[in-house]
Write a structure and sequence with these properties.
Layout lengths: L2 H13 L22 H15 L16 H11 L1
Helix pairs in contact: 1-2, 1-3
């Protein structure tokens, strides 16, 4: 299972981005992608939970987790 690829698929799907959008470790997320608002955060977390079979607690969610693509992937990898 390629965690980074699955996280990218989730972001593309939930945020309705172009499927050819490139993500690298430093790609900024929250505040940089207009579609990535507070409602999208909830949808992304829900999709991550369903895809990876994990549970994300409210106190684990912070701006740092959504700072950039690498931070989000690292967070998911730490939960799996």
């Amino acid at each position: 299972m390629n965690t980074a690829a699955l996280v990218k698929d989730i972001l593309v799907d939930v945020l309705q981005l172009s499927s050819d959008m490139e993500f690298d470790d430093e790609t900024p997320l929250l505040g940089a992608i207009p579609e990535f608002d507070s409602m999208a955060v909830v949808s992304v977390i829900t999709s991550i939970e369903e895809t990876f079979g994990i549970e994300v607690e409210d106190d684990e969610i912070s701006a740092e987790v959504f700072e950039n693509y690498k931070a989000l992937v690292s967070f998911v990898e730490g939960k799996v």
